[in-house]
Write a structure and sequence with these properties.
Blueprint lengths: L5 E2 L5 E2 L11 H12 L29 H11 L3 E7 L2 E12 L5 E8 L2 E5 L6 E15 L4 E5 L3 E4 L5 E5 L3 E8 L6
Antiparallel strand pairs: 1-2, 3-4, 4-5, 5-11, 6-10, 7-8, 7-9, 7-10, 7-11
């Protein structure tokens, strides 16, 4: 059964008066509240026999990621899209749980984790992506050589025009929010 969170104007999610976003840094609260305020398009837990996509319903509901899901349990609660990738001598896997896709299919959000990888982004990144890192880190080296390290508890927004090197020596887990210039398939 889906938990419903009431959203107040100050962007504080409350369920039975017991939930408070105050346990997380402000940027995490902003990310979580952003995820809470958009309507759910994806299905609830695939293992939940009562799961129904809200697009099939006349009621549009917010979606919530609870504390246990944010701690990584979301990869157990849902069926993540798992990919095994190989570029040159690098091999790594990723897991993605997409929790939201907008009705115009230009905006999505979810959680993602990846093994260690180093990638050269020679072509523009292609999407505007906000990321809040929960575990691990990434070193972003822009085309001009400037370097930025983003670790657990940090957030970063990568513009669609960005090029450079993405290096995550220990792997990572993040909450993401992506805006696409064109609808996604």
């Amino acid at each position: 059964m889906m938990e419903i969170a009431a959203i107040t104007p100050d962007c504080d999610a409350r369920r039975s008066g017991s939930h408070s976003c105050g346990r997380y840094p402000r940027v995490a609260r902003v990310a979580m509240c952003a995820l809470l305020t958009f309507p759910l398009v994806a299905c609830e837990r695939s293992s939940d026999s009562e799961a129904v996509a809200s697009v099939q319903s006349s009621v549009v509901r917010p979606i919530k990621m609870g504390h246990e899901q944010i701690a990584g349990g979301i990869f157990e609660d849902y069926d993540p899209v798992v990919e095994f990738r190989e570029v040159g001598d690098q091999r790594w896997s990723t897991a993605d749980v997409e929790t939201f896709i907008s009705s115009d299919r230009k905006f999505d959000a979810g959680m993602y984790r990846s093994d260690p990888v180093r990638m050269e982004v020679d072509e523009p990144y292609g999407v505007d992506e906000f990321m809040y890192f929960l575990e691990g880190s990434v070193i972003l080296t822009s085309a001009d050589g400037s370097e930025m390290t983003i670790g657990a508890g940090d957030a970063v927004t990568i513009p669609k025009e960005w090029t450079g090197v993405w290096d995550t020596p220990e792997g990572y887990m993040k909450i993401y929010v992506i805006h696409y210039p064109e609808p996604i398939e």
